[in-house]
Amino acid sequence: MNLALSLFGDRPRGINKRRCVAHILLLASFLVPGAVLKSVGEEPQHPVLSQVDSDNDGISDDVEQALLAQFVPTFLIGQDDCSNVPAEFRAGSTNPEVQSENGTIYGQVFPIKTASPNSLAAEIHYYHLWRVDCGGHGHPLDTEHVSVLVRGSISNSSPLKWKAVYWYAAAHENTVCDVSQIARASTLHAEDKGANIWISPGKHASYLNEAMCQKGCGADRCERMRLLVPERIINLGELGHPMNSSVFISSDAWPLASKMEGTNFPPAALARLDELPDSDIAWFNPGRHPSQGIIAISSTTEQGIAVGGHGATAGISSAAGSTGDAIAVAEGASGNALQKSSRHTLHALASSARHVGKALHLGKSPERSKYVHQESSEK
């Protein structure tokens, strides 16, 4: 009997769906890289490395660590980040206590149900945890992450190999400023390895593209960046079954537990992405994101535009309506997209300035009139 059919058939009554999928992955996870899955009753061609599954999720510890190592992103962080580098937290402590700011990256791997009878799927989260968010509206402790959905193809004639299918980057996640993104792994040239990830200094939002770093609410700017060489990658395990004494994951001092609970690749978000050209990155949440870019610009002069805010808001709203769910990544399209975004931003700011000027009963400024005329002639 074909292995795929026997593993992905109807599950026995009373067995939890996730546990059933986990059991399937557990069988595959026993194999060392290069082992060939054949049919039921046949042994792998290579010996088993380890059958230890410390977090009880169905994937062995050895395979989880191998996946974490294969797909670890290339992180670019600010040279002058006020929180230095991601921190390692004290093992065995129920509350997050910084042990050392040494560039440690934490990971999580768990099985995902797949519709294909000939593939396995897993989701990998990479957490860069910081001592402090030291941007605007900063706070102690900062839990940020990126994720990747990987699939391993089952074949009777070739080794089990894992390839990335989608990447996700959290940026101001679950806030009004949320500009989290998803993309095909092929778009990022990150199917067999980790993607390049830009981390905004201070706020530590994650971006799949350097130019996108300027589109958040937190005045993000990925400037003067440097390569982060992780001290090590530590597997957090699962909630209720932490690995490496990472019991701090359940602390209510930070929202790490909520980030570990769910998937970053829900069907609706993937469906929107798959309707876009291969060169595009999609917003994880659909919406009028250009307004957030304008908010980022205005954050440096928020005192100056506090008066006449109603007019400014109207200008932002009118500019936001012309942008879709995607940002072009291809070099040629990227330039056009950024130029278009810039024109809409200038138009919105000029409109806001006119409203504020009327509210304050100001006369025309020769310089501002020239600026508006130039912007209008470029449209």
Can you summarize this structure?
The chain has 379 residues and is α+β, with helices and mostly antiparallel strands. It is built from nine helices and 16 strands.
Average predicted local confidence, pLDDT: 72
H and E order = HHHEEEEEEEEEEEEEEHHEHHEHH
Return residue spans where pLDDT drops below 50 for at least 5 consecutive residues. Answer: 1-49, 290-325, 328-353, 355-379
The amount of helix comes to 25-40%
| SSE class | alpha+beta
Coarse shape: globular
What is the domain total for the residues? 2
How much of the sequence lies in strands comes to 15-25%
Task: Specify the biggest β-sheet.
Answer: 8 strands, mixed
Query: N-to-C terminal Cα separation, in Å?
Result: 65 Å
Please, how many helices?
9
Instruction: Tell how many strands the DSSP assignment holds.
Output: 16
Written overview of the protein:
The longest helix is centred in the last third of the chain and has 30 residues, at 331-360. Helix 6 (290-298) packs antiparallel against helix 7, helix 7 (309-320) packs antiparallel against helix 8 (331-360) and helix 8 runs antiparallel to helix 9. A hairpin with a 6-residue loop joins strand 4 and strand 5. With 379 residues, the chain is α+β, with helices and mostly antiparallel strands. The protein has an eight-stranded mixed β-sheet, with helices on both faces. Strands 10-9-1-11 form a four-stranded mixed β-sheet, with no helix packed on it. It contains nine helices and 16 strands. It folds into two domains: 3-283, no CATH class; 290-378, no CATH class.
